UniProtKB/TrEMBL annotation:
One of its GO terms (molecular function) is GTP binding. The lineage of its organism: Eukaryota, Metazoa, Chordata, Craniata, Vertebrata. Pfam families: AIG1 (PF04548). Keywords: GTP-binding, Nucleotide-binding. Belongs to the TRAFAC class TrmE-Era-EngA-EngB-Septin-like GTPase superfamily. AIG1/Toc34/Toc159-like paraseptin GTPase family. IAN subfamily. Coiled coil: none annotated. Residues 6-221 form the AIG1-type G domain. Gene3D superfamilies: P-loop containing nucleotide triphosphate hydrolases. InterPro entries: G_AIG1 (IPR006703), GIMA/IAN/Toc (IPR045058), P-loop_NTPase (IPR027417). This is GTPase IMAP family member GIMD1. It comes from the Eukaryota.
Length: 221
C-alpha cells in the first residue's frame, strides 16, 4: 500500500468441497482465473493466486478516489476427495507464506453455502482447520462468505429472515468472527454493481480491524 492512490487487499478463500470457493474468488476478481464447475469430486487440488485489475469507484482516502487491487488465493477444500488433511494444510500454509509473507493477509473468507444447513460436526472440523492454519488470532482475520444467496432468496428469505431462522451453529460462528459476513448472489456475482457491494463490505471489515494484517511464516512440517 505504498502508493497513496492505490490499495491492495490480500484474501484467501477456505471451505468445503462444492461450497463455491473458486467461483467466489472469480467474483471478487471480476474474472475467471479459477476453474469452477459442478463435479462429483473436489475440483481444486492446489493453491492458485489470482490478481484483479485496478478497480475504481470502491473506496476513497482523504477525499480522493483510491484504486483497489484484489489478490485472492484459491485453495483445495477440506475435507478433500483425494488429499488428506495434512496434505491440504501443508499446501495452504506454504502458499499463504509464499504469496503473503511480505504484505500479510487481510482476510480469510470461510465460504459456506447459504442453501445448506451448517451442522455442528462440520463446523467444528472447519474451525479447527482454520485455527491450525491461521493461529490463535484467526477470529480477527476471518469473515464468512455465504454463497448461493440467490437460492435462499428464491425460497423467500431476505438476509434478515435467513439469519433469524439460521441454526445456532451458524449464529455462534458468526458471533465468534464479530458478525463479519457477506451474502453472495451467484447469479449476479460477476456483475460490476454486485461485486462492488461485496468488496465495500470486505473493505469495511478490514477498516474495522485497523488495516491490520496477519503475517504468516513458512511451515516447518
Amino acid at each position: 500500500m505504498a502508493d497513496s492512490n492505490e490499495m491492495t487487499i490480500n484474501l484467501v478463500v477456505l471451505g468445503r468441497t462444492q461450497t463455491g470457493k473458486s467461483a467466489a474468488g472469480n467474483s471478487l476478481l471480476g474474472s475467471y482465473d479459477f476453474e469452477s464447475h459442478l463435479s462429483p469430486s473436489s475440483v481444486t487440488t492446489c493453491c492458485s493466486l489470482g490478481h484483479s485489475c485496478r478497480i475504481l469507484g470502491i473506496t476513497r482516502r482523504n477525499g480522493c478516489e483510491v484504486a483497489l487491487r484484489v489478490r485472492v488465493l484459491d485453495t483445495p477444500s477440506y475435507p478433500h476427495s483425494s488429499l488428506s488433511k495434512e496434505q491440504v494444510r501443508h499446501t495452504v500454509r506454504s502458499a499463504l507464506a509464499h504469496h503473503f509473507r511480505e504484505e500479510g493477509l487481510h482476510l480469510a473468507l470461510l465460504v459456506l453455502r447459504a442453501d445448506l444447513p451448517l451442522c455442528p460436526d462440520e463446523n467444528d472440523h472447519t474451525i479447527q482447520f482454520i485455527q491450525e492454519l491461521l493461529g490463535p488470532t484467526w477470529k480477527d482475520f476471518t469473515a464468512v462468505l455465504l454463497t448461493h444467496a440467490d437460492k435462499a432468496k428464491e425460497a423467500g428469505f431476505s438476509e434478515e429472515a435467513y439469519l433469524h431462522s439460521a441454526s445456532s451453529t451458524l449464529l455462534s460462528l458468526l458471533s465468534s468472527v464479530q458478525y463479519k459476513y457477506v451474502f453472495l448472489d451467484n447469479q449476479k456475482s460477476i456483475i460490476k454493481e454486485e461485486r462492488a457491494i461485496v468488496l465495500r463490505k470486505l473493505l469495511n471489515f478490514i477498516r474495522q480491524n485497523n488495516y491490520q494484517v496477519l503475517l504468516l511464516k513458512h511451515s516447518k512440517e
